[in-house]
Amino acid sequence: MGKTVATTLEWFFRSKPNGSDALDVQFLLSSRKQPRRVQVVLGEQFGLEWTDFKIERRTVIIVHGFLSHGQETWIRDMEKALLEWGDVNVVIIDWSAGSNTWNYYKAAVNTRIVGYQLSKFIEHVTNATTIAQPSVNNWGPLHLIGHSLGAHICGFAARELKKRQNKWTVQRITGLDPAQPCFRKADTSVHLHKNDAPFVDVIHTNGKLLTSLGLGLPEAIGHVDFYPNGGKTQPGCVRTSYFDYLPIPTTVIQRAICSHGRSYVYLTESLTSATARNCSFWAHQWNLTYRHFLQIIAEPCDENICSEMGIRAEMYNQRGNFFVATADTSPFCANSTDVIEEIKKQLQQDYFGHTED
What we know:
Layout lengths: L1 H12 L12 E5 L7 E3 L18 E5 L9 H13 L3 E6 L1 H4 L4 H29 L9 E6 L1 H16 L7 E5 L22 E5 L20 E5 L21 H7 L1 H19 L5 E4 L4 H7 L10 E2 L11 E5 L15 H11 L7
Parallel strand pairs: 3-4, 3-5, 5-6, 6-7, 7-8, 8-11
Antiparallel strand pairs: 1-2, 1-4, 9-10, 9-11
Helix pairs in contact: 2-7, 4-5
């Protein structure tokens, strides 16, 4: 079933999107000097000159997922944390016109269209900058952050820019629990993959099989894949069953995706921690087994042998899969042994039958 859906999705994606396919996607810009968002519109009246956008800065683009929108609290929190962390351009992509539908498959198909529109936005910024500042040669890094379906949108946009050989290309993509339904058995050209950018880091927080209510991809797809608390179920999140999903009210969905949403909570907290310099989400190299977890969890961690989950992940040379321990409530960054026993219990449940791997 999963492979059939993935193959059908690939068939839809073979045709190149064009202007007639365009969705009502909003591009909302902010900065330290201009924290109130300003919307720009693709076309002749682009309006970049009315913003505080500076190409020399790092530009961070945030893309939401299914049944979401650009005004979500978590996006506001991440935007605020980014502006406190550094002098950056922040761009919020609101594609709620294509994501707020109960037809998940339709939203999945829309990711290609939105990815194409995002690439056109980046191309517009490139052209506007080249015209306004023809001698500019200090292009700041471009970092895309996408949650769930938004992660795959980021991959599409980056691949499209490569095809066009755009002057300004994506240096980093952070995938926040990239969506599993429709994408798990699909070709790498359809979902986010490490080939999409020089550095792709992924935070897996709900990477179970779909039959076990997993919303995120369980497989490693980046240069660095972080599996906080094993990457399946997050501490403090309510455990549910299929019966809870039958009525499908919004409140039940929000509860069900608690683990799925922890990915963006962890990234935002990594920003606030980096600003305050008070904690690091240290990550041990991990082979994804319970036995190896028992071996590594008691080992000391520092920048020479470990990596760090979150905004500072790009500062480390280590590549591969990593285990991160977190607390069950905010602040989640907890560099202590207090949370280990609870995580052990959680992993015994999540990895039942794998304790002898």
